[in-house]
Amino acid sequence: MTATRHDSRIGAELRRLEQDGVARFTRDGGWELVSLEDEREVEA
What we know:
Elements lengths: L7 H12 L3 E3 L5 E3 L11
Antiparallel strand pairs: 1-2
């Protein structure tokens, strides 16, 4: 199951990572890391 934007417990951290360019939200409401070390989609 992918993390969703309405999960406030991790949402704030994901938004911070997104601002840092480390993570991005996907169209289906999940998210993925975009760092060079880890190109795989992250499941939470």
